[in-house]
Amino acid sequence: MTKTPATSKSAFVTGASKGIGLAVAKALTQAGYAVTITSRSADEIRAAAGQIGADVRGVVCDVKDPQAVQREIDAHVAAFGGLDVLFVNAGVGRFANVADLSIEEWQDVIDTNLSGAFYTVKAAIPALKVRGGYIFTLSSLAGKNPFEGGAAYNASKFGLNGLSEVLNLDLRKHDIKVTQIMPGSVATYFNDHTPSEADAWKIQPEDIAQLTIDLLNMPQRTLPSKVEMRPSRPDKKQA
Questions:
Q1: For the chain, where are the E strands, in sequence order?
Q2: Which residue, 174, 78, 76, 151, is CA-closest to 120?
Q3: pTM value surpassing 0.90
C-alpha cells in the first residue's frame, strides 16, 4: 500500500477482525484516519482489511506477546508517520465457577484482556506523546458488576477499569485522553456467539463506533473518562 503522509491522522485497533473492533476501524477510516487492525488469525484479518479498503494495515498480532505488540506499533508509526488514536479492544471470555475454571483459562483471559491491554498501551505511549492523542479501552459493565461464573472475566475487566483510570492520571499532562467504554449486551461474535435478528435489541458494534467518533470530536478541554452503555430496552423475552 502507499505510505500515508505524516500529516495524516492514524489509529491502531486491536482485535479488529470482526465485531466492535471492525466497526470502530471502519468508522475511523471514514473519518479520515489511516488504520492498523490486528487479530490472531491471518485469514480473518485479511478478510477484515478487504472490507475496509484503503489506508488500512491488517496484521497478525497476539496482544499477549509484548514483543509482537511493540513491533507492530513501531511498524504503524513508520508506515503512517505517527499515532493519534489507540483503541484497545482485543479480548476473550472463559466462564466457569472458580472450582472448575482451569489455570490455563484464567491465564488466557487475564493475559489477553488485562496484560494485553497494558502491553499495547505501553508500546503506544511514546508515539502518542509526540502529538497528543486518545486511548480508548473497551471494558464492560462486567468491570463493575460481578456475576456467577465470571471470575476470570470480571477480574480482567475490573483490572482494566483500574488501569484506565491510572492511565488518565499518568497521561493527561501529555495531552493524551483516556476513555474507558463499558457496554452491556452487544451483538458480537464474542464467546462463540453468532449475531442474528434475535440480537436486534442489543447494542450494535456500529453504536460503539459512533460513540468513538463522537468522543474524538469533543472539545479538547473536555473528557468523558468513563462511558457506560446499555441497551435502551431489555430483551422482550426477559422483560
A1: 10-13, 34-39, 56-60, 85-88, 133-138, 176-183, 226-229
A2: 76
A3: yes
What φ, ψ does residue 127 adopt, rounded to 5°? -70, -40
Distance, CA of 187 to CA of 15 (rounded, Å) = 16
> Which residues are annotated as catalytic?
153
Instruction: Report which residue type is found at 131.
Output: R
Domain ranges of the chain: 10-229
Coil/strand/helix, residue 113: helix
The residue to which cell 461474535 is assigned: 189
Handedness of CA 70, 121, 191, 151 (dihedral sign): positive
Architecture of the domain made up of 10-229: 3-Layer(aba) Sandwich (3.40)
Sequential pLDDT tens for the chain (239 residues): 333 444 489 999 999 999 999 999 999 999 999 999 999 999 999 999 999 987 899 999 999 999 999 999 999 999 999 999 999 999 999 999 999 999 999 999 999 999 999 999 999 999 999 999 999 999 999 999 999 999 999 999 999 999 999 999 999 999 999 999 999 988 766 666 677 777 788 899 999 999 999 999 999 999 999 999 999 887 766 54
**Nearby residues of 93 by Cβ (< 8 Å), 6 or more positions away:** 109, 153, 190, 191
